[in-house]
Amino acid sequence: MKIVAITGAGQGIGRALAWHFAEAGYGVSFIDPDNEAGREVLAGIGARKAQGLFQRGDVAKPKDISGWMARTVKELGVPDVLINNAGIVIRKDVLKLTPAEFQKVINTNLGGAFFASQAAARVMAKRGEGGAIINIASTRAFMSEPDTEGYTASKGGIVALTHGLAISLAPYRIRVNAISPGWIEVSDWKKSSQAVKPKHSRADRAQHPVGRVGTPQDIAEACQFLAEKAGFMTGQNITIDGGMSVKMIYAE
Ligand code: NAD
Asked: Is 26 labeled as catalytic in the residue annotation?
């Protein structure tokens, strides 16, 4: 049985990743601070006849990550794949953002991806059979909305971290790649108590060259490709945004 370890799989894209890989026959281990969301995801993994492990924890805390990885190895086995998906955003006037707020976003999004990669790489290297790490970045690594500097910087950092780790981990046959999603509608992938309606309109769909907003499945399929097929790819970023970031926009 192949094992995938996913951060932030309680809701949203991570939830879809957990269930997608469970359907593909993987054992799925994940870390998330949300107990209610985590239990729902674990039940969904079981319903797909796959083995699951849920660790309640915070990827901004390296100790939580090392505890999760140790438990994963003990109860499921060494991960073949790590997906660094956990991410938060704080939207606040750039002139008012506090050091603690900026650092929280960086420590969660970028620090979490590094320390989870390090923990997974240690056990993958020890086993000696290689592995794959997939970092979920964002098109915000390359373009911006106002007042989201921490998020944007963390995502740019993840793209750079991806090629850094790809070089350092190549001797262990661990490939490291990133996916930069554009607008992904996650409303169908929220916990029961937090059901939200899709926020997109006809105009939102039309602004994407492919004519729709993205889905978590779009990201899950690309993750499976990077995990299983992309043997000659490492250190790369794949943008999955329906063409939004390559569309020229003129004011008139
Ligand atoms: P979401 O908010 O729906 O889900 C995030 C999950 O991460 C939740 O289960 C949450 O509990 C968990 N999480 C939050 N803080 C955590 C922490 N400290 N430790 C562990 N888990 C934590 O988010 P989403 O939209 O599914 O986004 C998932 C990833 O995809 C993020 O990295 C995000 O930046 C990226 N992304 C999303 C979109 C989009 O349009 N949805 C676009 C580009 C990139």
From this structure: no
